[in-house]
Structures are given as C-alpha cells and as structure tokens.
C-alpha cells in the first residue's frame, strides 16, 4: 500500500523535496516522469491554443509545458505553489529566450492574487494539478477558482487523473497477470462523472481528447513485451505510441483505459 498524504502541507512537502533536483534517480523529470505521455497531453492541448490568447498554466512545475504553450500563444503565466519550481521555470524561460512569460508562486485554491496581478485569462491549463489536492471538496474548490479566473467564453483545458480510466486499464492488466498500477499517496484520482457534473456548473464541455491508445500501448503492451525486464517510460514503443496518438489515429480507441485525457471546457458567460 502506498504512503498516504492526507493534507495539503504534506503533499506540498513532497513537491518541495522533488523540486530540489531537475531530474530524479531514473533521469526523469519529477513532475512528468513519462516524457511521451507529457508530449501527447501537450499536443492535445496545443490544438486549442491560438496566437494572442492570454494563457495561465496552473501547477506549472518546472514550466516546460508552459513554455511550449507560450510559443503558440505568445504570452503565458505559470503558477505553482513550490518556489523552487518557479525559480527553475524562470531559468528555463530565460534560457529559451522567451519573453512575455511570467512565473509566480501561488495556490490554485486561492487565485485572487493572480487575478489582481494579471486580470482574467482567455485560457487556463492544468496538467495533473487538481489530482494533487487531498480530496474532492478541495478539487471542486479549485474548479471554482479556475472558473473565477477565466473570461466568459474562455477555455479550461484539463488533463488530470481520471478514476474510471485507471480502473479500466487495471482491468486489462489484471486479465494479463500484470499488477495494478499503484496510486502514489500524493495523487487523489478524480471520477470523470463527478468532475463533468461539477464542471457543468461553470462550463460547457465542448470536447474531450481521449489518450487511451497511448495508455494501453505503454501500460499494457510494453510491460508484456519487455517482461521479465521492467517497463520503461523512455521505451521506444512509447515513442511510437505517442506518434500514433499525436497524429490523431484511432482517436477513440481504448477510451475505457484513458486515465489522463483532456477535457476542453468553455466558460459560460
Ligand atoms: C504532477 S506535477 C505536474 C507539473 C506540470 N503541470 C507538468 O505537467 O509538468 C503537479 C504540480 O502541481 C503543483 N501543485 C500541486 N498542488 C498545487 C496547488 N494547490 N497550487 C499550486 N500548485 C500546485 C506541484 O507543485 C507540481 O509542480
């Protein structure tokens, strides 16, 4: 059983510790350990970005996704509650020579300081940020903060950790004698049904980008292929899977094991 992190302070301590090194012991970014999964999520979101959009990336970590989005929109703000991530993100932006990008410390549960500094945004992104809140009431409060920080008609692009997809993927893994994917204690997976119902208080759901094919190939096919060796996030099969998904091929496949697809929500107004 994984260690539990029952409150925000303990989860934050985990990320403060993770932020001390840009790469973990396996040579992977601590905030995005599967680089190809990160690429398919970013590609899914990038399809909804246009030049001139004022973008806010919440829980931006080291800011590399924010930079990718800013290259499209021309401007972006990244917010994270860990000061060392904000420092790293600013360094990445300076090294990339990207202007019109700001990184600020802040908590998704209280975005009033960000609203006062920057006003309302056209687009907000979260990649695995709400999942780091300890329970559904906090996650629902974060959803309200996102809505308050968007212009009417603005877009919220959300890739979190979806419970139904995790259970569906683990069902296939069990049938193939693979162990269930463990949930680390700082992650609280969200029911898509509950998220969608709550989101509809503020947003119209205009699309959902399914990433089930990538998850099936990387989390079911790859471990069967490499066994008895352990699977690896940097395996060539993941790269191939990402290429197929990024091209939109079989976009509806394996939706039952999609635990991190992207909701495209438009704020009512
Ligand atoms: C799994 S990482 C993902 C980082 C980044 N979005 C990415 O995809 O690389 C989650 C990030 O959310 C941040 N975070 C978690 N809870 C937060 C909160 N309440 N307010 C602001 N940031 C938070 C963490 O510090 C961490 O950088």
Describe this entry's structure for a reader.
The chain is of the alpha/beta class. The chain has one domain (8-161, 181-210, 260-264): Vaccinia Virus protein VP39 (Rossmann fold, 3-Layer(aba) Sandwich). The protein contains ten helices and seven strands. It has helices spanning 8-18, 35-46, 64-73, 83-96, 112-118, 136-149, 163-175, 192-199, 212-226, 236-246; strands at 55-58, 76-80, 101-105, 121-127, 150-159, 203-209, 262-267. A seven-stranded mixed β-sheet has the order 3-2-1-4-5-7-6. Helix 2 (35-46) runs parallel beside helix 3, helix 2 (35-46) runs parallel beside helix 10 and helix 9 (212-226) runs antiparallel to helix 10 (236-246). It is globular, with a radius of gyration of 18 Å. It starts with 7 loop residues before the first helix and ends with a strand. Bound molecules: S-adenosylmethionine (SAM). S-adenosylmethionine (SAM) binds next to loops. S-adenosylmethionine is lined by residues 15, 31-32, 59-61, 65, 80-82, 85, 107-109, 127-129, 132.
Summarize the structure.
Helices cover 43% and strands 16% of the residues. It has 269 residues and is α/β, with parallel strands linked by helices. The protein binds S-adenosylmethionine.
Write the layout of secondary structure elements.
Layout: H1 8-18, H2 35-46, E1 55-58, H3 64-73, E2 76-80, H4 83-96, E3 101-105, H5 112-118, E4 121-127, H6 136-149, E5 150-159, H7 163-175, H8 192-199, E6 203-209, H9 212-226, H10 236-246, E7 262-267
Parallel strand pairs: 1-2, 1-4, 2-3, 4-5
Antiparallel strand pairs: 5-7, 6-7
């Amino acid at each position: 059983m994984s260690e539990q992190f029952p409150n925000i302070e303990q989860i934050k301590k985990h990320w403060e510790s993770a932020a001390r090194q840009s790469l973990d012991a396996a040579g992977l970014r601590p905030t995005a350990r599967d680089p190809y999964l990160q690429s398919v999520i970013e590609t899914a979101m990038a399809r909804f970005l246009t030049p001139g959009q004022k973008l806010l990336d919440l829980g931006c970590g080291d800011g590399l996704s924010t930079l990718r989005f800013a290259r499209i929109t021309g401007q972006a703000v990244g917010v994270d509650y860990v000061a060392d991530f904000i420092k790293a993100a600013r360094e990445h932006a300076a090294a990339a020579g990207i202007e019109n990008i700001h990184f600020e410390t802040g908590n998704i549960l209280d975005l009033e300081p960000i609203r006062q500094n920057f006003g309302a945004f056209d687009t907000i992104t979260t990649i695995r940020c709400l999942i780091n809140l300890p329970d559904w009431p906090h996650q629902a409060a974060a959803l309200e903060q996102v809505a308050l920080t968007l212009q009417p008609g603005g877009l919220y692009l959300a890739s979190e950790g979806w419970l139904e997809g995790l259970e569906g993927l683990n069902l296939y893994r069990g049938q193939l004698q693979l162990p269930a994917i463990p949930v680390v204690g700082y992650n609280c997976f969200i029911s898509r049904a509950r998220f969608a119902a709550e989101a509809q208080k503020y947003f119209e759901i205009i699309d959902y980008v399914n990433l089930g094919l990538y998850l099936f190939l990387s989390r079911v096919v790859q471990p069967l292929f490499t066994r008895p060796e352990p699977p690896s996030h940097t395996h060539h099969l993941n790269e191939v899977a990402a290429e197929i998904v990024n091209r939109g091929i079989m976009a509806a496949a394996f939706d039952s094991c999609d635990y991190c697809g992207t909701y495209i929500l438009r704020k009512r107004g």
